[in-house]
Specification:
The chain has 18 helices and 2 strands. The protein is mostly helical and about 375 residues long. It folds into 3 domains: about 140 residues, no CATH class; about 110 residues; about 100 residues, Serine Threonine Protein Phosphatase 5, Tetratricopeptide repeat, CATH 1.25.40.10.
Length: about 375
């Protein structure tokens, strides 16, 4: 998504928007993110400067066409020009979505119910309804609505977004008769979305990931391996033009192996990325994670040490030291592992964000307790 924003021609919006990008992990941004219910990235808002209410919301990656439609929608919400009642209900759903998803569901349904047959925002409202149902953890209704609405949608990036959301709702719950029926419909639609060049990269990654998760849940490892290899082949065919794009590809590779597969399959690409990004500790961390999964413990320790030398913050340092401790433990070097864990705990105690700090401190403390020798 960052690559699209860096290269998109948005000159016709000059003077209409003040652009603000916030780092999700920076503690100074926490008040804003809490106010607007931003719990995942990427997430986009158009905010009316007069009263700071949200006039348009869009989670997840967008195509260039979707981005322009999003900006147009947000601007029309500010100026309220030429709107149907359905447009007002759609905007109300966007305002409510991150903080009150159940109420957003009602607003999107109102928009669809009141919209005239010629309303151009119908498919957007359908996709937004499915997303709000997911946000509200209404898994069955989300999946069944996605399968029903996506079937008649224009085959564009909005179609892919709707199918992806429905697939996540299927894999987010325990198997049931309804989920298997919805999965069959959505799997066919997923294959169709993957055949479309307009399906954005992030959605392609999520489609492959959910198809693999479904296969693993059915103990169908052959299908999981097939989808995994098809996904990796696509990723390997992309020649990254920036560090951000390279990192995004590596995240997808790791997610692929976490679903099913041999971590050794992606080690060459991760090694290449670490060399290409010599100041990026996360590249070392991803490589260490997969070296550890491949049982290459010495290589994992070395990757952790390289990451630690690249100036990570408190969270990154704690993460790398905890992973190094795990690799040392696997080698039988328990005393060194305990020292690494103690250093990880010290780093975790300085993480600025309280929620993240408490979670990391608790996790490392539990691992440390497990290493203690029983008293005589």
């Amino acid at each position: 998504m960052r690559d699209l924003l860096d290269h998109a021609d948005l000159s016709r919006y000059a003077g209409q928007f003040v652009w603000l990008e916030l780092n999700y992990d920076a503690p100074e941004n926490r008040a804003f993110l809490t106010k607007y219910g931003a719990e995942a990235t990427p997430l986009f808002f158009v905010i009316d400067p007069r009263d700071e209410h949200v006039t348009a919301t869009q989670p997840g990656a967008m195509s260039l066409q979707e981005l322009k439609q999003f900006l147009d929608r947000g601007a029309s919400g500010v100026f309220a020009k030429g709107q149907y009642p359905a447009d007002a209900a759609l905007a109300r759903g966007d305002t409510l979505r991150t903080l009150q998803p159940q109420e957003a569901v009602k607003a999107y349904r109102e928009a669809l119910h009141s919209a005239p047959a010629t309303w151009t925002q119908r498919e957007l409202a359908e996709a937004s309804l499915v997303g709000a149902l997911q946000d509200a953890s209404q898994w069955q209704e989300c999946a069944e609505t996605a399968a029903r609405e996506a079937a008649h949608m224009t085959r564009n990036s909005m179609f892919g977004r709707t199918v992806v959301t429905g697939m996540w709702c299927v894999v987010s719950t325990d198997p049931a008769p309804w989920s298997e029926a919805a999965a069959r419909s959505l799997e066919a639609l997923s294959k169709e979305a993957l055949s479309l060049s307009v399906t954005v990269r992030d959605h392609r990654d999520e489609l492959y990931r959910t198809l693999m998760n479904l296969s693993v849940a059915r103990n169908d490892n052959a299908s999981a391996a097939k989808w995994g290899e098809q996904w990796l082949a696509e990723l390997d065919a992309i020649k990254p033009t920036s560090d951000d794009q390279r990192s995004a590809l590596d995240i997808a590779r790791v997610e692929n192996i976490q679903a099913y597969g041999d971590p050794a399959r992606i080690l060459p690409a991760l090694i290449q990325s670490e060399r290409a990004m010599p100041n990026n500790y996360i590249a070392s961390l991803r490589l260490a994670e997969m070296q550890l999964a491949a049982k290459h413990y010495g290589e994992a320790i070395a990757a952790c040490d390289r990451g630690l030398s690249r100036g990570p913050g408190a969270s990154g340092r704690a993460w790398l030291l905890q992973m190094k401790a795990e690799a040392l433990t696997k080698q039988g070097r328990k005393a060194e592992a305990r020292v690494a864990l103690q250093e990880a705990l010290k780093a975790a105690e300085t993480i600025p964000d309280k929620m993240m700090r408490d979670m990391k401190v608790g996790m490392i403390s539990n691992v440390l307790k497990a290493t203690e020798k029983p008293a005589n």
